[in-house]
Amino acid sequence: CDRVFDFYGWNCEIDVTKKETVKMLEKTYEEQVEKNVNETIQVVQDDFQSDIFGFGAAIHQSNPKEWKKIKSQWGTEFSEIKTTVKAKVNIRHFGTVNNPIQENIKD
Fold first, then answer.
1. How far apart, in Å, do the first and last CA atoms of the chain sit?
2. What is the 3-state secondary structure (H, E, C) of 18-55?
3. What pLDDT digit, counting tens, does each position of 30-46 carry?
């Protein structure tokens, strides 16, 4: 699932014209997104036992036989499933108008 986020009002001493800086920022944001999503899933599993993410529907679609076996106890099963979250962040621009980052990235 691709999401696009725009960064405006960048106000720090980081040189975003350097490729390694952009890569570091992408990695940092990937880790933060993964952490936030994992924590959210855990809270929903522990506190609400409600599959608001549609994992059951995905299992039903991809593996109907398995779904048939577990659907009657899905509330319990959902609370026990292990998930893997992998985020991929690709910073395309920083919202600059006068100095587009794509033209000025240094190796």
1. 30
2. EHHHHHHHHHHHHHHHHHHHHHHHHHHHHHHCCCCCCH
3. 999 999 999 999 999 99
Handedness of CA 20, 103, 16, 36 (dihedral sign): negative
Q: Is 78 exposed, middle or buried (0-12, 13-18, 19+ CB in 10 A)?
A: buried
Whether residue 58 contacts residue 1, with contact meaning beta carbons closer than 8 Å, is answered with no
Is the per-residue pLDDT at 106 higher than 70?
no
Q: Is the dihedral of CA 54, 85, 87, 42 positive or negative?
A: positive
